[in-house]
Amino acid sequence: MPVSAVQLFELQEIARSLRVDVLKMLHNADSGHTGGSLSAVDIIAALYFHKMQHKPEDPKWDGRDKFVLSKGHAAPALYAALAKAGYFDSRHLMTLRQYGSILQGHPFSLTTPGVEVSTGSLGQGLSMANGMALASRLDHKDIKVYALLGDGELQEGQVWEAAMSAAHYKLENICAFVDNNGLQIDGCVKDIMGVDPIADKWKAFGWEVQEIDGHDFNQIIAALDNADQVKGKPSLIVARTVKGKGVSFMEGQVKYHGTVPTEKELTQALDELGAA
Amino acid sequence: MKDRQRRSTRKAYGETLAALGEADERIVVLDADLSCSTQTAIFAKKFPDRFFNMGVSEQDMIGTAAGLASAGKIPFTSTFAIFQTGRAWEQIRQSVCYSNLNVKLVASHGGITVGEDGATHHCLEDIALIRVLPNMTVIIPADACEVEKAVTAAYEYSGPVYIRVSRYDFPVICDETHEFTIGRAKVLRAGEDLTFIAAGLMVSIAMDAAESLAARGINARVINMATIKPIDQKSIITAAQETGAIITAEEHSIIGGLGSAVAEVLSENCPVILKRIGICDHYGVSAQPDVLLEKYGLTAKHFEKAALEILAKKKSK
Ligand SMILES: Cc1ncc(C[n+]2csc(CCOP(=O)(O)OP(=O)(O)O)c2C)c(N)n1
After folding, report:
1. A162–chain B Cβ distance below 8 A for any pair
2. Is the pTM of this model over 0.80?
3. Which ipTM score applies to this complex?
4. Whole domain around residue A76: which residue ranges?
């Protein structure tokens, strides 16, 4: 179903508040991954606040759709979304990366309600998502399993093993995103180790592929709805994104992969996001 | 070697798995194109819907198993020991053990008795690689009967378990009355002069050596240390106190395996003379398993010699 103007506005507001939380958390933690969290916010917002069937008050609810953040370093974006959705009190956000926190530097399923599996070592998430999809098939459960991968992450061999498996086992309830922001740690993906053409590669591996603007909720949601119609094969959504999206001086800057905002930068960023 | 009946440990695994699969639908099995060798093919034939051949992709196999376990299934993953623990070590660490997921890793083709395929297929490092992981339980059964009990115990236990089975048929040393408990060593033979602490195939060889030594008036205790982790500290310390000399024996590198685990316990609790028998920090070569056991000092004769040497040291102390 297309999104109404009201829904669109609401999603944009949610995404804006998630970005604010991400920046505050990272500033407070004084370490972590800013750029790749910000590029993933809109996709995560569309999943948790529009698309997925889930019950934050009952994180293990049997009928829930599942999400695997394969690019686990974007944990702040996931944590902000889980808190906003009600999986845990938002006061935890400011404990990110501190001793005793339920919010580890990378997602850890045993301490954070709503985190399905532990990630952070790139390349491993899609295999786990496939396992969940196979289990749901055995249990005759009509659920969807979503995964979010980085474009640099596609350099990991295991991703392609998992791409083969999902197609081989016809996992039509798998829908994966590539956060195609074009950057990784050491520079541009195309300069470090090119992964293009992403769409053609996944098509060749037997996936249904869509290419969208990963910051346009209309496109994200249309692509998610299209993926529901795909039969007999998994779906990939290549989302063109901007690393550092939403903060002018961070956008497209390699430097902000693993750099957090200083006090001054935070003030400016919050100002841009209308949250100063 | 004494004339004992022999049985395949990997076949015992395959059959036990199929029997457990009959009783519990949560059991699913994954293999990486070696199902005939690992014997998961028995399960696959019986329960094709719950068997997933992942092709030659061990990392994806472990990750997929983690996902299945997170959704309430009890996955057993199998391939050769070196590929399961070596190729997919980080997947076992990150995707399975960190979240304490209920995945059972049963690896066939452990040790040097893989034989003719040579060094690339021998596995002399799996125990070192796997016992270092938090949440992991590590078992090397001594014969086919113990495989049946260990696989069942692993199924009943909640959390990751690694079990090593073999290509080589093991002499039978346990009977149906054998009780297996994770973490509990078994004294198979009493003795006060020295103690063999062995695992896997080496247990039967230690038993043979102990029998020959008895004929010379030397009483060697033999402990079957089937669970390498959590290791039975009490039985090690008691053996050290009562016999004063320990020989460990394993079909694995002497670095990082059973010998190291025993040394860790002894040095912190009750240091006594220790001799570690195993593969001494080198690769294997192609040959028949029995030839390799002879060449690398893993026979009862070698164990007897080691016993005499350690006894001499003990007396001169
Ligand atoms: C296996 C592994 N190797 C290296 C890293 C360190 N690392 C963290 S993020 C990153 C770059 C990832 O790039 P990409 O997937 O494009 O993520 P994004 O740009 O969206 O943040 C690397 C190399 C890791 N987390 N895991």
Report:
1. yes
2. yes
3. 0.94
4. 5-272
